[in-house]
## 1
Amino acid sequence: MSKKNKTRICIIGMPGSGKSTIGSLLSEKLKYRFIDLDNEIEINTGLKIKEIFKDMGEDSFRKIETDTLNKLIHKDRIVISTGGGTIIKNEEILKKSYNILLNCKLNELVKRASRNKNRPLLSSNVESKMKDLFIERKELYNKIADLKIEASTNITETIADILSSLENDY
Ligand code: S3P
C-alpha cells in the first residue's frame, strides 16, 4: 500500500505502452492538468525529440528531460505522461509523485512501436531493441511503480482499472 499523495501522478512504462493516451484520458476523468513530458520538451526546446537525439545525443536529451520533469514535479492536480526512459535518471524525483506503471505484452509493444517512426531508440530492429530495453529497465519500472496496471488491451478497461485501484489504494 502506498501512502503517497495521489494528486501528482506520473505514468511510467515502456515505449508503446500507451502512456500518453491513458495519461490524457485519466487527467480528464480526475479533472487534473495533463502534461506529456516529451511534448513539453519539444515545446520548450523548439526541437523534435528525434532531432535532440540526432543533434545533441542521448545524454543531452536525458539532462533536458530531468530539468523539464523537475519543473513540473512540484505542481498539484497533474498527470504527467513520462517518456519510456524517464525512470533511468530520475528515481529521486519520481519519489515525489504517485507512479502508475502500464504493463504491456512485448508483442503488443513491438506492434505499436513499428507503426511509429518517431522513436530514435527504436528506429530499426524494433523487436530486438524493444526486448533489450525491456530487460534493462523492467526492474527499475517495478521499483518505481506505486501501482501496476495491465494495459495490453482495452483503453476503457485500463482507465476503469486505474480509477478503481486509486480509490482502493489508501
Ligand atoms: C524513450 C522513449 C520516448 C522518448 C525518447 C526516449 C526511451 O518516449 O522519451 O524517444 O528511452 O524509451 P515514449 O515512451 O513515449 O516513446
## 2
Amino acid sequence: MFITFEGLDFSGKSTQAKMLFEYFNSRKIKTILLREPGGTEISEKVREIILDRQNIEMTPLTEFMLFSASRSQLVSQVIKPHLKKGYIVICDRYYDSSTAYQSYGGKLELSNVLKVNNIASSGLKPDLTILIDITPKQAFKRASCRNSKDRMESKDLTFYNKVYKGFKDIAKKNKNRFLVINGTLSINEIHTMIINTLSAKSKISKNII
Ligand code: ADP
Ligand code: TYD
C-alpha cells in the first residue's frame, strides 16, 4: 500500500505521517516513511538546491523539473522496490504537491504538469492520499511561531491561496483516493480518523491492519 500526505506547509502532515509510521511499526507491519523532496542521497541534494534561500533567480519551470527529478529517483530507487517487497510506503508529499504548488500556485500549464508528474512517477499512483486541510491563514498563524523559513515557505499569502484552492480541486477530482481531514482538529483526533479509514479500507480488501 502506498499512502501519501498532502497539505499546506505547517498543516501537520509530517506529524501525522510519523504517527502513522509508528502505528504500523508497533504492530510489526513492514513500513517505510519518506519525504519529498528527498528520501535518497541524490534527492536530498536536489532538496538543498530547491529550498536554498539564496536561489532567488530559480524559474518556476526549473523548480518543477527539480521536484520531478527528485521524485523520479525516489520512486525507482526506494518506493517501487519497497512496494514489491510488501512494505507499506508512507510519503510526506508526492506529485499532488507539484500540481498544487507549481501549477495552481506557480502558474505552470496544468496539462504539462500532470504529464510530467506521470513520467517522473513512472505512473505510480498512491492508493490513499490524506489531505490535511488547513487554510492559508491558519498555516501562516502556525508559521509565525517559526523564525527561519526556507525558500518555499517564504512565498506570500496570495500564492498560498492558489495552492490551497489547488489541493481542494485535486481532491475533488480524485475522490476515490483522497481522504480530506480538517487539520484544525487535535493531533490525536486526526490520527484516529486516519486509522479508522485505513481499517475500514483493509476490511474491504481483506488485509489486516
Ligand atoms: P507540516 O509537515 O505540514 O509542515 P508539521 O507536522 O511539521 O507540519 O506541523 C507544523 C506545526 O504545527 C508543528 O509545530 C506541529 O507541532 C503543529 N501541529 C501539527 N498538527 C497540529 C494540530 N492538529 N493542531 C495544532 N498544531 C499542530
Ligand atoms: P518542507 O520543509 O519539506 O515542507 P513541509 O514540511 O511543509 O512539507 O519543504 C517542502 C516545500 O516544497 C514545501 O513548501 C512544499 C514544496 N513542494 C513543492 O512546491 N512541490 C513539490 O512537488 C513538493 C514535493 C514540495
## 3
Amino acid sequence: HELRTPLTVMTGYIEFLQHNADEQLKVPLDKIQQQTVRMNKIITELIDLAKLESAAAVDYTNVIDINALLNDVYNEAVALDRGNHHIELVIENETPDNVLASHLNGSYEELRMAFSNLLTNAIRYTPEGEDIKLFATSHDAGITVGVQDKGVGINYEHIPRLTERFYRVDEGRSREQGGTGLGLAIVKHVLDRHNASLHILSEPGRGSTFCCEFPLSYEEY
Ligand code: ADP
C-alpha cells in the first residue's frame, strides 16, 4: 500500500500531462507511463509473494475440481492471447481409477495463480502461431499439471536458478515481454505450500515443459 499510493498519484499526473503536453514530450511521457505500469506489476507480484510467505498453511480439506480450475486458467489465457497461439487443454487419466484425475487439495486461488503464471510465460516466450499445451495427467504416483510450449527454450545451466526472485535468462527479452522475474518464484512457493514440486525440461530453440508434480494425498495411498 505504501508503495502503491504514490505510484497511483504519479500515474494520474502522467495521464494529465499526456493529454496536455507538447508533441515533443509525447514519447518521453509514454516511456514514463510504461515504466509505472511495470513498477505496478512488480509491486503486485512482490505483494503476492509476501502474502504466500506469511499465509497460514493451506487448507487441505478444500477439494479442487481440476477440470474447473484448468478451464478457468485456460479461458483466461486464451482471451489474453487473442488467437496468437494454438493453445490446447488436455486432461488425461493414466490410472484405471478415474477418481484421481478429478481433484487436487488446497487453495484454488493459489493454484490458479501458479498455473496461470506458467501458461502466460509459455505465451510470452513462444513465437506467434506455435502450439502450447496446458495439461493434467493422473498416474499411479499422483497428478502432474503442466504447460508445454514450442518456444525459445532455456539452456540447461539456467534451469536450477529459474525460481529465484528476479532471475532471468535474458533480461532484455523478459522486460520486452512485460516480465518481472517473479513469476516462477511465485509458482515455486505455491507448490511448496501444496507439497508439490516443479520439474523443468527444456531445450534451446525447441521449447520447454514445466511440470507440477502433486503426490497422492495421504488418504489416497
Ligand atoms: P519473467 O517475468 O521474467 O518471465 P519468471 O520468473 O516467470 O520471470 O521466469 C524467469 C525466467 O525464466 C524468464 O525471464 C525466462 O528467461 C525464463 N522462462 C520462464 N518460462 C519460460 C518459457 N516457457 N520458455 C522460455 N523461458 C522461460
## 4
Amino acid sequence: MQSRLPILVFALVMAAIPFIPGMPPFWIVLLDNIGLSALVAMGLVLLTGVGGLTSFGQAAFVGFGAYTTALLTTAYGLSPWLTLPLSLLISGLLAVLLGLVTVRLSGHYLPLGTLAWGLGLFYLFSKLEFLGRNDGISAIPPLSIGSFKMLSPGSIYFAIWVAVTLSALLTMNLLDSRTGRAIRALRRGHVAAEAFGVHTPRAKLLVFIHAAVLAGLSGWLYAHLQRAVNPTPFGAQAGIEYLFIAVVGGAGYVWGGVLGAAIVVILKEVLQSYLPLIVPGSGQVETIVFGIMLVALLQLAPGGVWPWLMSFLPERSGGRKPDTSLKLEQRPRASGQSSILLQVEKARKQFGGVVAVNNVSFDVQAREIVALIGPNGAGKSTTFNLITGVLSATSGSISVLGRKVDRAPPQEIVKLGISRTFQHVKLVPDMTVLENVAIGAHLRGHSGPLSSMLRLDRADEAKLLAEAARQIERVGLAEQMHQLAGSLSLGQQRIVEIARALCVDPMLLLLDEPAAGLRHMEKQQLAKLLRDLRDGGMSVLLVEHDMGFVMNLADRIVVLDFGTKIAEGTPATIKTNPEVIKAYLGVAA
Ligand code: ADP
Ligand code: MG
C-alpha cells in the first residue's frame, strides 16, 4: 500500500504556485497546458505503460470531450457543469465501441488501429456541419461558479490542477487494488492472470475507457480554457505527441505522465521562443532540435525521466505486513471418501503433424499426490494445458468431480478449484511477491474498479493481501514478501508461483517442474509442504524430473513417452517397470 502523502504535497505546491509574488502570467498559461496534457498522458500511462496497449489515438478522445461541451453549451445553452459528465460519458462510450474493435488486435495491429481511428475521427470533426467543419465552434462560455467566471488562465488553472490531482489519486488507487493487479499483469503476465480468473479482454477494455475518460476530461477543460474548438488539436499528430509525453516522463508511472507533460510543453515553448534568436529564419529547425533533444533524453533515461529521477532517492524499506488474522471464505469441500477429483479420458492434442498428447487417460483422487513423468517433449506440459483450459483437446474429455470441462476456458477451470504453476515461470517481474501472489486470490475478492478508485475496497483488499501473506509464509518466503518478484532467484520464483496457486484455495494443485532450480534443502522443504497439503485434504498433480524427489513423494506415478501413457502405478512398481526404464529412467535407475 503506497502512501498518499506525496499527492498531498503536490496538491499544496500546485495550489501555492499562482500566489508566488511576481509569477509571470505566461507561466500560468504554460502550467494550464501542462495540466491538460498531463491528464491525457496519465491515461496513456495506464493504457500503454502499464497495460501494454499502445495508442496513437488519444487526441480523438480529447476531441470528443471538447466538442461535446462546445456543442451543448453553445447550441443548447447547457451549463458546462452539466456537460462535464456528458463529455466524460461520450468519451467513455466511444472508448467502449472503439475498444471492442481495437483491443482484440495484437502486435503492431493495435497501434496501427488506433492511428487509423485517430486519423478518421479528425476528418470526421472537420467535415461535420453541426461541428462547424474546419472552423469549429466558438463563443464557448467560460466555467463559472456563481457569478465568478473563470475567464483568465489564472482562474481556470485551479480547475485544471484539481482535475489533475484527483485523476492522479484515482488512477493510483486503481493501480493499487485487485483490479489494478489484473491491469498490471496484462502486459507481461496475462496467461498467468487468466489462470487465476482474470478476464483479460475486460481488463483491457477498462484501461481503454479509463484513458479515454481522462482524455475527455482534458478536452472539456480545453474547450472552456480556449473558449473555442477546431479539429487541429485533435488530429493524429497530437495523438503521437501525447504518447511521446508519456514515454518521456516514464510510461509506467502516474507521475511520469505529469512530468513528461511538463518536460515536453516547456521544451517546445523554450525552443519556439529562443531558437529563432539563435538560428534566424528557421521554420522547421525547432521540430528537429526538439526531436533530437527527446531522443537524447531517452538515451539518458530509457525508462523515462520519472523512474530515472526516483533512482536517486534512497530505497524505501519494504511495505507493511498485512494483518494475517483476516480470513477469506473457503471453498466447500466435497465430502465422501472415494471421490475422483480429476478424470482425464483419452485426451488427445495434435499440433499440426505432432501428436503431443495421444489418447492419455488417468485420474487423480482426493488426497493424493500423482506425478506425471517422462522425457522432454513427452507431452506433460501440454497435458497440464489441456486440464487447465489453456489449450482445448483435439478429442477426448476431461472431467472435474464428474463434470465435463472440455471446452472451459482457464477462468472457469480455476473456479472449480484447480490451480497451477508454470514450467516457464510467469510472474509479473515489476510487482512485489505479495502483489503477485495476491493475483491468485483474484476470484475470492469482489471489489470492482470504481470502488477501488474511491478506496471503498479496503476491507476486501485487506483480506486478499492477508491470504497472500499467509500463503507466502506457508511456502517460506516471508522475508521476500515486499521484494520485486523479478529480483528473486528462479527457484524462489517457482515457490512464489506455488503460493499464488495456493491462494485459490484449490482442491487440486498442478505443479509443472516445481523443484527445478531448487537446492537440496529447498527440495526437502517443498516435499514436506506438498505432503502437508495432501494431508490437509488437497490433491497434487506434478511434473518433475528429479526422480529422487518424485519417488519419495508421489502416491502414484503416470509415465508418458511421445505423448502416450506407457505405465502407471506406485513408485515401487514404476521403478522396476522395464518399459519405463528403457524409455526414461535408464539403466542406472
Ligand atoms: P513436456 O512438457 O513433456 O516436455 P510438451 O507438452 O511441452 O512436453 O511438448 C510435447 C510436444 O508438443 C513437443 O513435441 C512440443 O514440441 C509440442 N508442442 C508443445 N506445445 C506446442 C505448441 N503450442 N505448438 C506446437 N507444438 C507444441
Ligand atoms: Mg514441460
